[in-house]
Amino acid sequence: MSDVQNQAHAVLEGPDIHRALTRIAHEILERTKGAESVVLLGIPTRGATLARRLAERIAQFEGLKVPVGSIDITMYRDDLRLRPARPLGRTELPPDGVDGRTVVLVDDVLFSGRTVRAALDALNDVGRPRAVQLATLVDRGHRELPIRADYVGKNLPTSKAEKVKVYLEETDGRDAVLLIKEEAR
Amino acid sequence: MRHLISAGELSRDDALVILDTAEELARVSDRSIKKLPTLRGRTVVNLFYEDSTRTRISFEAAAKRLSADVINFSAKGSSVSKGESLKDTALTLEAMGADAVVIRHGASGAPHRLATWVHGSVVNAGDGTHEHPTQALLDAYSMRRRLGRLEGLKVAVVGDVLHSRVARSNVLLLHTLGAEVTLVAPPTLLPVSVETWPCQVSYDLDAVLPKSDVVMMLRVQLERMNASYFPSAREYSRRYGLDRDRFARLHDDAIVMHPGPMNRGMEISAEVADSPRSTIVEQVGNGVTVRMAVLYLLLGGSEPAIGGTA
Description:
By secondary structure, chain A is α/β, with parallel strands linked by helices. Chain A is 28% helix and 27% strand. Chain B is an alpha/beta fold. Chain B has two domains: 7-132 and 284-299, Aspartate/ornithine carbamoyltransferase (Rossmann fold, 3-Layer(aba) Sandwich); 133-279, Rossmann fold (3-Layer(aba) Sandwich), CATH 3.40.50. Chain B is built from eleven helices and nine strands. The mean pLDDT of chain B is 92.
């Protein structure tokens, strides 16, 4: 579907995303008292990119190299049987693993909370973190599970008919968060 | 495509999706909890009419790592010995709610027939002298892991091509993936229609070896030989066996493969089979991963992810 057919407008542009991530990086440092035992795990594809960006910022601010990786949740989804089998994303854990550490899960959009539930299950199979926190660039509401984010880039009230699309430089050639209203046909 | 019956019906994209999925799943084999919840509540039946060690165990391990329920059925000790037909056996399994049937059968085409009788997915685990698609997939996967590519790779498949379902599946799949296959065998051990296969044919192993990146040795299938295809085992071994001298003629990065089980001393010498450039043991481990990928892509969603539009 093209942007012409649907009304799309950017809710966040490049500089906004930049500022939001900078703030989240500071908040992680503050809440975890210096991010000593933190591991950043992104949910592919864009969550993994965001996790890397957060790690870069933390290194910039405090000179600390936080272990960063990705955790694919496809095999743990609860809606697998509703759609054709999907290709898998990449799971890359830091060499020291997640045992005893504070894992910060990173995703681009927090919506129903089902992705995060799947991520918690996946995490359970790769180790036993001391604590798990959640960072998201956009929280668009409409939770279907008792899950909330610890770090939010932007709270974005949406209707269920709308779509939120995150574009990132590394994968999409530009930074933007679009709110897409689907026209009734 | 609900089934995996022939390596020839896989498009390049399908084959690459399977190999890439296997690549991701290989990481699961490295962790302490090797199980994934993906196929919970699905039933996979292993229907084996022919003896098999690695393929049956490999499919069983693959299904169990994806949390599917596995029912193993071997013709020995079942109602097949009372004369039950393949169709009746299939309908019985269907009634028990099998989501997938993995079948190994001595008759070429049995999986194809089975697919018309059951609603679940049918996976061909070797039918007569016809095809063994998951073996070809795991071979391609092993080559790509060792050598980093498949495009333009020169692969020699040596030995009993006539009786080999592995050779046919490999020729079809490797051709799709851009590798160049040369079959090397005595004229008596080549099928009649071999000139229609997408590959080269040679009778001279020594000429082919120095140009090959991969040498795949096939087992001489003595149990299927009811006529004399070569004068003696010694003569076969001298002309088509991979021994130390021939191995030394390979270039330094070339690898040696064998689908197993091996006749050590016949088509391959023990020394070559155990060398670090042999992938024979690796192939077994890769088999589980590749079969997990196939089962996931066929059963993991509302419809299969390979085969494009149904």
